[in-house]
Amino acid sequence: MTEENSLLGLAVIGVFFCFISDFLFKFLVIGSAGTGKSCLLHQFIESKFKQDSNHTIGVEFGSRIVNVGGKSVKLQIWDTAGQERFRSVTRSYYRGAAGALLVYDIASRETYNSLTNWLTDARTLASPNIIIILCGNKKDLEAEREVTFLEASRFAQENELMFLETSALTGENVEEAFLKCARTILNKIESGELDPERMGSGIQYGEASPRHAKHMHGTQLQNRQQCNC
Ligand SMILES: Nc1nc2c(ncn2[C@@H]2O[C@H](COP(=O)(O)OP(=O)(O)OP(=O)(O)O)[C@@H](O)[C@H]2O)c(=O)[nH]1
């Protein structure tokens, strides 16, 4: 084998391992219209600010594999429309989500005042154990701030939420928000508090997980037994 061929082989193996994951987590991005949910998702996936973002119609989807505590986790993220007229559509996507970013705009008290409604929806429609991070977005609009950091952090504490102020425009804390949520879920899996095998947990074993291989092996065995081959 030539040196070029072996380098090519290593590159192919590298690319393969980049696309396989230990876990898959279903995430939601929820909150009032115009708070920057689509821009946060775009910044997280594309590492740039989405210019001319329009209102989301129903839901949009994005995914990215991240490394959390030595494990590769595929985040399957559903960006939901904040407009009231889409509520019945977006609510149908909540089911079985493991984590959520609950977004308000620090420059709009109205979006902050609606948080309780979004939170109730998430806990009743997704799961009472859903891991939620509160994101005070548009942190860059300091001069227009209507919601203080302190009051939002108190709200987060009272409602058992994690909290960060973010800016989809500058990228500040965007990566951290998604990773913090993923890390908390992973810690709960490792401590046994969350069971990925429970129906509707919003968690699946990825292709790189030995549990996935075991599960696949079991399925293949079952199929073989069924077809007698
Ligand atoms: N200054 C500033 N503007 C932002 C930021 N994030 C989003 N915006 C702007 O806020 C507006 C709404 O952003 P979107 O991401 O479309 O909001 P959304 O929450 O997805 O809205 P819906 O889809 O209607 O629910 C757009 O004009 C964005 O340019 C931010 O971090 N800072």
Automatic annotation (TrEMBL):
SMART domains: ARF, RAB, RAN, RAS, RHO. It is found in: Cell membrane; Early endosome membrane. The chain crosses the membrane at residues 6-25. Signal peptide: none annotated. It is a lipid-anchor. Residues 197-229 are annotated as: Disordered. Belongs to the small GTPase superfamily. Rab family. This is Ras-related protein Rab-4. It comes from Staurois parvus.
